[in-house]
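User: Can you predict the 3D structure for this chain?
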Amino acid sequence: MTIAALVQMKRDGKKSIGVVAWDYQIARIADRAGVDFVSVGDSVGVNLWGRSEVVEVTMDEMLICCKAVRLGVQRALVSCDMPYGPVQQGIDSALAAAKRLVDEGGADMVKVDAAAEFPEVVRALVRAGIPVFAQFGLTPQTAIKYGIPYSAQNSPQAQASSEAAHKLVAEAKLLEDAGASLLDFTNSGPVAGAAVVKAVRIPVIGGFGGGPWLDGRVRLAHTAIGYAEKWIDAKTDTYVNTAKAALDAFSALIADARAGRQIKG
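Assistant: Here is the predicted structure, written as structure tokens:
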């Protein structure tokens, strides 16, 4: 898979699909399934290590995860998130961090969060030959910026309509002009999402708050397979409930061991 191939998929109206993963085994399984890209997300800190904030993840930790995913992927593209810090510290710091993710981590492209706030960083990375996966869209902070209500009960996805569409289209065009290879549109909504897809030539991917109106989707692998303790009692549909299966398996293992039976596997 190549970035050019993803662009061609957009031209052909074919959806691209990626998963967020942080380890070798999930990366191998996703690659074998046929995903187009694997995104090594800074969400690893919260979802895998139990941290309270995404911004607590360090550069060295992202490199560990990126290396593991790179080893597990043979055909898909590998994107790695820039952790919080280097971009905020300026172009030189961001460039040094991005080079480490590519040279040491093996990333094919680097994800920059809130990229519309740092177009000069995107340009610098592209000039250095580093493809950029640029995130933008509606968050609690940008919702306030655009004067759109945001609450836990009222996601801006429903509010990202014509009132914000022209501003979001402008941001998308800014990032395309800066040289971004892909866009990650957060909380796009069907109105603004469709407008951005039409306005730019590069693929527009949706994670949180995305939908079929975009060029493709990226999903947290652990969400897709129901791999988290919360899924044991959850009523939300997912593709498989790995957490429940694991709970049942561990319970059976404990029962066999305590009964003096041979354990399986």
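The chain has two domains: 3-224, 232-265. The CA atoms of residues 229 and 243 lie 6 Å apart.
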